[in-house]
Every structure is written in C-alpha cells, then in structure tokens.
Amino acid sequence: MMANGRVADWLDRLPSVRGRYAFDVDLSRTVWFRAGGRADVVFRPADIDDLAHFLAVRPADLPVTVVGLGSNLLVRDGGVEGVVVRLRQGFRDMNVRWEGERALVEVGAGALDMNVARYCRDQGAGGLAFLSGIPGTIGGALRMNAGAYGSEMSDVVVEARALDAAGSLHVLGPDEMGLSYRHSSVPGDWIFVSAVLAGRREEPAQIAGQMETINAEREASQPIRARTGGSTFTNPAGHSAWELIDEAGCRGLSRGSARISEQHCNFIVNTGGATASDIEGLGEEVRRRVEEKTGLSLDWEIRRIGRHRRWPPNEGGGEDEA
Ligand SMILES: Cc1cc2nc3c(=O)[nH]c(=O)nc-3n(C[C@H](O)[C@H](O)[C@H](O)COP(=O)(O)OP(=O)(O)OC[C@H]3O[C@@H](n4cnc5c(N)ncnc54)[C@H](O)[C@@H]3O)c2cc1C
Question: What's the CA-to-centroid distance between 315 and ligand 1, angstroms?
C-alpha cells in the first residue's frame, strides 16, 4: 500500500499490538449512511488488555476515536485523523448468571444489540427485547443511552466497564454514568468495553413475541433498510423533532442525494451517492427552517466526527474495511 501523507505520519509510531491495524480505511463502506471519508488507521484490538496497552503507550498526539456500528454517526468527507478503534472479536462475549429470578447478562461492548436481544430471548431473560430495535453495538448504546419502545439503557445497566484515555480500567455504576436522554456524562474519550445488564425470568416465547412486535412497528414507522443515521435530532423538551420538521415544511427536502425521509421526517436518508457534506448541510438547513418557523432550536442526535474536507483528495487505493 502506498501510504498517504497522514497515514505515513503515524506508521512508524504506532505501538506494537496483538490486534490488527488497517490503513487508509474507507469508513463509508461500513457506517449506516454509506457516506463520508476515510480513517488514517483502524485498530481492532484483540481484547481488553490489548486495547489498554495501546492506549497506555500510544504517542500522546495520536487522536483516538471509537466507532461502533456507525448507526448514529456521520463521518465527514475529510475523514478521521489518527486511529479509529473498532471493537469486534474479543469484545462480543455474552454470559448470563441468575440471582433467583433476576438475570445478570454480561456482554462485550462490541456485541450487536440485536444479538444480545436474541441471546437473552434464548436464555429466558426478559426486559431486554427493546435492544432488538436498535441497530448498533452495546458500546454505542451505552454512550447514547439508546432506547426504544419504553425502555432505555439506563433502565437495565447494572454496571459498565470503560478504559480511560490512558488505558486504566474503570467500573461504573449507573449513577456514575450520568445517563439521560440520548446522553452519557462519561468522558468522551473513554471507551466502554463491557457491561452487565439486568433482566428478569420470562418465557422465551413471550420475549420472541415482543421482538416480533418491535420489528413490525419499526418496519412500519422507520426507513430501517435505508442508508440513514437514525434520528437526526433529539426531541426538544415537550416536542417531537419530527413534528417540528414537518411543521417547517421539510418533509422530503433534499440536498444533493441526501433527503429528509417521507416516512419519518427526523431521519435523513442517503438516496445514493450523498456526501457527508450533503447530509450535514441538509441537517443544518432543517435546523434553520425549524428555528425560523417555531423559534425552537434542534440539537443533533447524530454524532459527527472527522474533518469537513477530503484530505488528500480520494484517489482510490487504501484498504477497505470488511
Ligand atoms: C434505522 C435506525 C434506527 C434507529 N433506532 C434507534 C432507536 O430506536 N433508539 C435509539 O436510541 N437509537 C436508534 N438508532 C441510533 C443508533 O442505532 C443508536 O444510537 C446506537 O446505540 C448507536 O450504536 P453504534 O454502535 O452504531 O454507535 P456509533 O453510531 O458507531 O457511535 C455513536 C456514538 O457512540 C460512541 N461509541 C461507540 N462505541 C463506543 C464504545 N465502545 N465506547 C464509547 N463510545 C462509543 C461513538 O464514538 C459515537 O459518539 C437508530 C439508528 C438507525 C440507523
């Protein structure tokens, strides 16, 4: 591989690890929006110790960003500087232990929410079916206090484990995580590595029924097969973001190939070939129109990372992340 300038800056300075580095990785291939730029380096640590070692000995000026499944994420077109950490194998274990009727489900932060929901169903651990409606990882769900259908992470988290920027492990109870609506107050540079979630004994068939209902409702109300980042904006207190967007006449509004979904107008959809700049620009236009019409200011729920401009211009090449 011919390293671009930025990648070459890091190449000789990356710590030796047991996991895998990939260079100049096209993130648009894996994030839900299917848009945006490249990462200088993607690091998939082998396990928690490997990640802790990497964080402890990395060069102090090396930026580190963790990305889950990219289902609530916009990667800007100029790409992400430094190392993007992705938790895959080594971070997907699931275990349940029972305290009477109470299930304590220990899950790795790289586990997919849907797989955790299926695992809990099979184990007869109820109360976690809502995870089947959230298309991300447990790490992303902890960071976003993800929730759906009347439950959210703050209702079920018993504890979470996270590495700080220096690689030290912290065990956090729910109070220390500061979970509120789509927010955790855990420092932004900490990386969740696992969690213990509480469930209760329930018949697998009953849990399966709840998951089917959730799935049917999602199919009917959200563009779940589209290239999207989920809800674009959080709901302002006492209001629904989608209603405000509708009221401001933004349903179906488009910029380039980015479009406000007709089905659920708090979703932006990449209809094919949208740039991150199209998507972000459309979001900003919606914010402007909503404020003009209603006086209310919408806050982005989607996390935006990276640089605005493509640098250097994408000339192809580099590794793609499978
Ligand atoms: C079709 C669709 C429907 C959706 N429906 C819902 C819904 O009903 N309810 C809901 O809450 N959300 C919903 N979402 C949004 C999204 O699925 C959730 O926010 C999800 O929790 C994000 O997880 P992720 O792994 O994809 O995180 P990413 O999108 O990759 O990242 C989101 C944020 O989490 C951080 N992060 C990721 N992993 C870690 C980690 N291990 N440690 C620390 N920080 C981390 C990232 O740095 C980033 O800031 C939907 C999205 C889509 C596309």
Answer: 30
